[in-house]
Amino acid sequence: MTTPTKADRENGSRFLPKFDDNGLLTAVIVDHETQQVLMVGFMDQEAIDQTLTTKLAHFHSRSRGKLWQKGETSGNVLRVQDILVDCDQDALVIKCEASGPTCHTGVTSCMYRRLEDGQLTPIDT
């Protein structure tokens, strides 16, 4: 297959993910009902394939260098409801139904603090 062009990615109907130099793209996970941002992760082709196959969110762990399914140890899986692809196909917004807290700290969202005047302030999640 030839390398996809900008026009292929921006105007075509085929999913042609544009991975970075490390073979990853950004995935923003939001609650499918509330639209609250739950987390940000990174996906490689294997994570995308597993997510599409199982309808459970999978990611590439940069620290461990391997595939992981969200909730594989905690049971707090993310059930994929919808996947949005940005204009140049290098980022995804994945709308999910969370079966429990998304953050490893036990809160609903990993985005539980706001930056105000150089300080982190807790917010309700």
From TrEMBL:
GO molecular function: phosphoribosyl-AMP cyclohydrolase activity; phosphoribosyl-ATP diphosphatase activity
Reactions catalysed, as given in the entry: 1-(5-phospho-beta-D-ribosyl)-ATP + H2O = 1-(5-phospho-beta-D-ribosyl)-5'-AMP + diphosphate + H(+); 1-(5-phospho-beta-D-ribosyl)-5'-AMP + H2O = 1-(5-phospho-beta-D-ribosyl)-5-[(5-phospho-beta-D-ribosylamino)methylideneamino]imidazole-4-carboxamide
Pathway field: Amino-acid biosynthesis; L-histidine biosynthesis; L-histidine from 5-phospho-alpha-D-ribose 1-diphosphate: step 2/9; Amino-acid biosynthesis; L-histidine biosynthesis; L-histidine from 5-phospho-alpha-D-ribose 1-diphosphate: step 3/9
EC number of this enzyme: 3.5.4.19, 3.6.1.31
A GO BP annotation: L-histidine biosynthetic process
Family to which this protein belongs: In the C-terminal section; belongs to the PRA-PH family.
Protein name in UniProt: Histidine biosynthesis bifunctional protein HisIE
Protein species of origin: Pontixanthobacter rizhaonensis
Taxonomic lineage of the native organism: Bacteria, Pseudomonadati, Pseudomonadota, Alphaproteobacteria, Sphingomonadales
